[in-house]
Amino acid sequence: MRYRLLACLLLLTANVFSQAIVKEKLDDYLSYIEKNSGGLGNVSIYKNGKEVYNRSFGQDKLEGVQYNKNTTYQVASVTKMITAILVLQLVEEGKLPLDTKLSEFFPAIPNSNKITIKNMLEHTSGLGNFAIKDGVIWVLDKVSEEDIMDVIIQQGTSFEPNEKVAYSNSAYVLLRMILEKKYQKGYHEIVAQKITKPLHLKNFASVKSAPTNTFKSYKFSAGHWTEMKDMEYTNVIGVGDIASTTQDLNIVITSLFQHTLIKPATLALMVPTVGKEDWGRGLALFEYGNNVFFGHGGDVLGSHTRLIYNPKDKISICYATNGERVPTNVFLENIVDIVYQLPFELPTIK
């Protein structure tokens, strides 16, 4: 009898999302958001590699917008996680050692003879943010690769490699350019070859693959949602251009932690050391009380994404929004609390 009770408890733990109370609370939370025009988006949750929850909310409030289960979201900087995986695949194959200097590819960039591939992956390069010039975002309209490179060179570096950690869009756009040099093909083709096809993803693509069924970004004003100007995504290839459903993103991160995409030792390199690092080499740390997740976030002007995975419980959560009124991090923290049946407060929507 004692062993039967233990088995039942283990089964309940393993199937946390099969409990009606969790699904009901998730539905209640998203219905509250939807009813109060608190946001537009989708939440997908996977457990042991299988989807156990999926819900879209708010999109019916968009006038004249048609969408379906295959409509994708711009996932912004979650793209960097993909770029890091692709780089580390080359590292595994011995084609791009982590200590390779940036000068091997782009010698005109300041400090390139000191900056390594590893520095660029982990945001310790000292490189800056090419998307900001003279204090403003200048990549809203199409610009050339030469213009982007000129800005990176002009910005230079703000510190020596390994001196500290500072999030760098410039480092990742350069990693994308290095991938294209190594493969002799476009980033979108590399993504399709190394990620989309092997994982049998149906709704996951880089911008030059020309995804069409993708939500635009919206802002809430005067009681309704209105479309807002998006980023020109061809300016941020490899940095923030991928469009995907939340389901496909969950497949990617689950496959990553199941060692389908890279080997265990390489994954260990990606993952930040808890208590010592907020950033690893392509993955960030997300802590919610005792629940530790790894993943990546993405934010542009109107679209935001959070993709996180808890290796202990084999739970992945993906939240994507193309119109928010509740801050993305608050929204996701509430989702995590509901999943783990912890107390939380409904956000105030003004």
TrEMBL record:
Pfam family, one: Beta-lactamase
SUPFAM superfamilies hit by this protein: beta-lactamase/transpeptidase-like (SSF56601)
Keywords: Carboxypeptidase, Hydrolase, Protease, Signal
GO function term, MF aspect, one: carboxypeptidase activity
InterPro entries: AmpC-like (IPR050491), Beta-lactam-related (IPR001466), Beta-lactam/transpept-like (IPR012338)
Source superkingdom: Bacteria
Annotated Beta-lactamase-related domain residues: 43-326
Protein known as: D-alanyl-D-alanine carboxypeptidase
Signal peptide range: 1-20
Phylogenetic classification of the source organism: Bacteria, Pseudomonadati, Bacteroidota, Chitinophagia, Chitinophagales
